[in-house]
Design brief:
Length: 347
Amino acid sequence: MAPLLVLSSADIDWLVSRLSVHDILENQARTFDSFSSSRAHAEGAAPASVQNPPRISVLTDKHTVLFQPARVRESGGTAIKVVSVPQPGAPAGLPAATLVLDEATGRTKAIINAGALTGLRTAGGSVLATYLLVPAASKPQNLVVFGRGTQGQYHASLLAQLYPSLSNITFVSSSASPSAEIDDLGRKLPGRAVTVSADTEAAVRGADIICCCTPSTQPLFKSAWVRTGTHINLIGSYKPHMQEVEPALIHRATGRIIVDSTEHCAHEAGDLIQADVSAASCTELGRLVKVDGSSWSPDEGGLATLSSGTGDVTLFKSVGVAVQDVSIAHLMMEKAVDAGVGTTLDF
């Protein structure tokens, strides 16, 4: 038998509450740098240091169940996440678990409740892209979020930490009724106006940053409502028929679109596919960061090229890559061991 670390939802909540936005930025910068760099260098006979095969999906009556394996040698090894994405009418939430392997023995060394971590790692990618494209000196004030679930809440929380200037955080919903989760988020962000609004047009017209975190198959708002200079994060669509924005808005970001993975977005990013925009023409997030030993920084050359694009808005499109799950799981394991959190079993 070997020790197995189990991190429950409560364990993860405790660990996440002690992370800073800069912990997340560094974790995701290293992850995306490894992901993009791994395909820029030919591998020999040794196993590739980064492996991110296409996910497998199983459709059940209530959920689309996604199986997402990956390896990131620099972040600790190999893991697989299983996440259940609800179908319309199914209970809300993203139940998920990550299985972490010991590469030396092949044994399972940790099982981690990944419901919250799915939202955290996805928001981490968006926040990294936003950090690179929206200078703090521009002092964005108005954040608009579509989606009141875990994904939307993490986007709001991390961006509020990153930009002290954000004074208004608006969750757009057809039902403007408050929820316990949004009320709780407001209490955690003192000095910010955290509200829910059904007035989509007014919210979008005033936005500096927009985050779309819904599994929509129809555009959530009109491109004409988005003002010049706005940054948009699109993370909800992950199938070709899904889309959160109009093709016109995608075209407004010409030359200024970042993606998490050109390969995966080419097959899964409905917003790009329906706008007839090739993912290969976009810039991978990992190309915009540099990692040097214990530090990381923006790649100024890559950002300069991106800023020369003709688009009048900037846009980040993510379909989610499993290397993010590996890296965030290992970060949680490290923090848990340091803090003595979790349950250890013989397995």
